[in-house]
Amino acid sequence: MSDLLANLNPEQLLAVTLPPQHALVLAGAGSGKTRVLTTRIAWLIQTGQVSPQGILAVTFTNKASREMLARLSTMLPAGLGHNARSIWMGTFHGLCNRLLRTHHREAGLPQLFQILDSADQLAAIKRMLKTLNVDDEKFPPRDLQHFINAQKEAGHRPHAVDVWDDYTRRRVELYTEYEAQCQRESVVDFAELLLRSYELLERNEPLRRHYQQRFRHILVDEFQDTNRLQYRWLKLLADEGRDGGAWLFCVGDDDQSIYRFRGAEVGNMRDFEREFKVSNVIRLEQNYRSWGNILDAANAIIRHNTDRLGKSLWTERGSGEPLRVFEAFNDGDEARWVVEEIQSLVRDGMSRADIALLYRSNAQSRVLEHQLFSSGIPYRVYGGLRFFERQEIKHALAYLRLIANPDDDTAFARVVNFPTRGIGARSLEVLQDAARTWQGSLYASVPHLAGKPGTVLGQFVRLIEDMRRDTRELPLPELVDHVLDASGLRAHYKSDKEGQERLENLDELINAAANFVAEMGADGEALAQPHALLADFLAHASLEAGEHQADAGTEAVQLMTVHSAKGLEFDAVFLTGLEEGLFPHENSILERDGLEEERRLMYVAVTRARERLYLSFAQSRMLHGQVRYNLRSRFLEEIPEGLTKWLSVPSARGRGAGFGGYFEPSRSPRVAAAPSPAQPSRDLGGLRVGQQVKHARFGQGVIVAAEGGGADARVQVNFGSAGLKWLLLAVAKLEAC
Ligand code: ATP
Ligand code: MG
């Protein structure tokens, strides 16, 4: 046991060994929060204070929970280590899924319910709007999706939504319709997983009591990013702090709250302190991760935020090397530089797996990937090209989902004519009408059809029925293999010139199934029911989306967005694309909250590095089919000069000195050429700052800034939902209005 506690500092030791009570550890990046949480679980078990079954632990990603379980198995003595698996550990979604599967009847769900990821959810909403003949210009599917999820995350079923106008009333009706559709199809979206299991616990007292008594300790990592409903869910299980419920141990960092845009509430920390009468807020201030310069830069950046609980970090390690800054001519140039630096790090003995390449938006990865690939450097995109979200995988999963649950209309619509089998839009319309008339799923409505639609769709139904029959006895990997052939997917991609990679991915799905079975352990009962196991596998696929590929064997450079880097650490970190509009993201710049959230994201990014931090930006960049000329990020300016070393000569186009812009479209050669810096002038062809204007593509907007003159005159326009854009007047054809 002394081994377990040997390397902790006094505050960490205090936190790990706290007697049973509600507690909050509030501490900055790299101060050992996750380590404290893991060690506390081990300590509680090892000292016999609780059995593994009595612990519920919440992590932010599936990867984090796998890593934590692996650590625990090594921390605990052999006998106990095996039991680490009986800890309920996972993300909120994973844990809710487990609860709903176990008590599906009480929750009003079939055992084999399917999970809709957010792309599936959007498809389901679009399909619903179409069936109901709703104008999707008036009710854009994405808005509706956002509305529904926000309501669910606030714990509101349709009847509980505040209706303040006709538009909202209509949206609430659509929310009701959407719920009915999901129930008919036996599918559950991410927000529903949470709300449904919350309601289950809230309404079913015996069940709630059971879990309240079972879980003695609930531990939550990354607490700052929990949303309201998740907090209420925790409160239910902990019996709101009354006797008999579990003890809640939360760790978090308000400076790393980066999901407020998705409803995360830092206020949960304050409420937790108050409602659970937390007398012990433990602060950890020593950082064990990064060299001093990196830490100083992080502290300097986050100090620009006003909305903070306030804390700072120090380290015993020396200052280390300066942060290296590179200004590239363009994005390709930046990628080449990154690759050269990586090659030199690897030559000096650094493992590729300890190098991370971070960027603000997924779209930025492509150029980096291209360069890495051309240079033969193994790399892995983590969370980006999501394995389970690739087209061919989604097709295969849709067949599997239909086997598990024929009423899943989203899956049905996806593959009914893929690979093509002559089922046209007309037949599907007839089918949808029938489904409406008979109030059934698409699948169940096929027998009601006559004529050609009845024949072709009947064949499809028979295909699925055959698959179901033929796979009833097969182990999961063979089941998947069978479906890949029987569905015609393999043959389809074989005949496709560019299908090789897709075929490899399909094979990888069989591996994923095999791994899943292995991870489940040799549970004879589960293995004896292949179709129930299939439903578990499909749930796993929906929950895992994307985290899969980053784990597999070979030593590879890791690419990911800053969001997915939360909680991780690497020897060397490249933070690319540090440009205004990119990072901070253009949608955030106008709002204080938005900008502060971007800054927290920057803080997360910087604090991922242990030894070396590289910061880069490009004078011009091709993104979304446009060439953009951006100023370098304000976050770079917030780093004290003494901490950085420029690898390139800073150009005259520093912040404020020169020229920043957002240009379009790239098809115009005049725009793609780098314009020369020009002095600001008021020669704007009759336009002025503050003026309302109209643009053919972006619609109405207002001019917020102007620069340059003559042929180079450019203005920045806020187009509301279309965002802030820099436009070259000579090209953009703005109309005053
Ligand atoms: P983040 O906010 O980024 O999630 P964190 O607070 O969870 O960070 P950890 O990831 O737990 O921090 O720890 C950061 C690093 O410091 C890890 O490599 C961890 O093993 C190491 N570490 C933590 N505490 C100690 C300690 N007392 N002695 C040595 N190393 C430590
Ligand atoms: Mg952590």
Automatic annotation (TrEMBL):
Would I find Ligase among this entry's keywords?
Answer: no
Q: What's a GO cellular component annotated to this UniProt protein?
A: DNA helicase complex
Question: Please, one GO biological process term?
Answer: recombinational repair
Which reactions are catalysed by this chain?
A: ATP + H2O = ADP + phosphate + H(+); Couples ATP hydrolysis with the unwinding of duplex DNA by translocating in the 3'-5' direction
Per UniProt, ATP binds at 27-34
CDD domains the record matches: DEXQc_UvrD, SF1_C_UvrD
Sorted keywords for this record are:
ATP-binding, DNA-binding, Helicase, Hydrolase, Isomerase, Nucleotide-binding
EC annotation from Swiss-Prot or TrEMBL: 5.6.2.4
Enumerate the transmembrane spans.
Answer: none
Q: Which residues form the UvrD-like helicase ATP-binding domain?
A: 6-291
Domain (UvrD-like helicase C-terminal) spans: 292-567
Q: Which Pfam families match?
A: PcrA_UvrD_tudor (PF21196), UvrD-helicase (PF00580), UvrD_C (PF13361)
Keyword Nucleotide-binding carried by entry: yes
Q: Give this protein's Gene Ontology molecular function annotations.
A: 3'-5' DNA helicase activity; ATP binding; DNA binding; hydrolase activity
| Family as reported in the entry's similarity comment | Belongs to the helicase family. UvrD subfamily.
Protein name as it appears in the record = DNA 3'-5' helicase
